[in-house]
Amino acid sequence: MTLTAEQKAAYDRDGYLVVHDVVDAPTLARLRMLIADFRERSRLVSRSDATFDVGPGHSAETPKLRRLKNPVAQHAEFDVLMRSDAIVDTVAPLMGGTARFDHSKLNFKPAGGSAKIDWHQDWAFYPHTNDDLLAVGVMIEDCTPENGPLMVIPGSHRGPVYDHHINDLFVGGIPEAALSGELDKAVSLTAPAGSISIHHVRTLHASSDNVSGRERPLLLYAYSAVDAFPVFAEYDISEYDSRILRGAPTRAPRAEAVPMRIPVPRQQGADSIYDNQAGIAAAT
Ligand SMILES: O=C(O)CCC(=O)C(=O)O
Q1: pLDDT bracket for residue 63 (50, 70, 90)
Q2: What is the pTM of this model?
Q3: Angle ∠(77,103,50) on CA atoms, nearest 5
Q4: Centre of ligand 1 from the C-alpha of residue 206, in Å
Q5: Residue 117 CB less than 6 A away from ligand 1
Q6: Long-range contacts of 262-270, Cβ-Cβ distance < 8 Å, separation of 24 or more
Q7: CA 57, CA 21: separation in Å to the nearest integer?
Q8: By alpha-carbon position, which residue is closest to atom 7 of ligand 1?
Q9: Structural domain spans, the chain
Q10: Is it true that domain 5-224 has CATH number 2.60.120.620?
Q11: 104 pocket-lining for ligand 1 (C-beta < 6 Å)
């Protein structure tokens, strides 16, 4: 699907967009059957594992399935939709014309008032060398005010990058008290099944409890521009900080628009500059 100039301008201004009629009815029907199968399989687990994230009180009799992890790797149908022109042609122009798949998840938000997601910016989870990243939410069922639709703060992608730590621990969310003045601008992204939402990686977003009687499955695909590279590898942060010789620990890197190149791929088995540089003589 090709976005209009108005839709692109709205995304740039607001940091989100909802597009109707992106996923056709036969695809939706197949996804619903597939999702029902996964929901049934989740009854067999008693706790979260590599495939399922289950909430408190989950059991075979009363499943509390919150998330199917990495759906693209779980079934080809999710992979095909992730690569589809319907989605990729819609979002690539919002990232300068390129798109790299980053990750996927399927959030079920079961009925009965659970699986609330606190306000956060995806950027806090995966900072990159530039912020041309976004997430697509495929609405498998209608998203309504009652079933905990995604909520966003328009324009927040141009605002501060909020602290997602409490007492030096990453909590992946922002206490509402830190967002005073912002929350009354929140917009709920309600739309019929088959629509997609698109939110920028820095857009503040959240979702409430599902107080309807029906599950709200939302299939999320995250994409990045091909020249956006992750800047964070998981350090042993205490060890990393223990090597500071002057200055205080920080969780806010100083970012500058400096040119970079990425040192891969490497010669198989090369583990020193001597091995790496052997490639120069071999090539000249
Ligand atoms: O499922 C939702 O309502 C929001 C999901 C979300 O923001 C996330 O998983 O990062």
Answers
A1: confident
A2: 0.94
A3: 80
A4: 7
A5: yes
A6: 262/229
A7: 36
A8: 206
A9: 5-224
A10: yes
A11: no
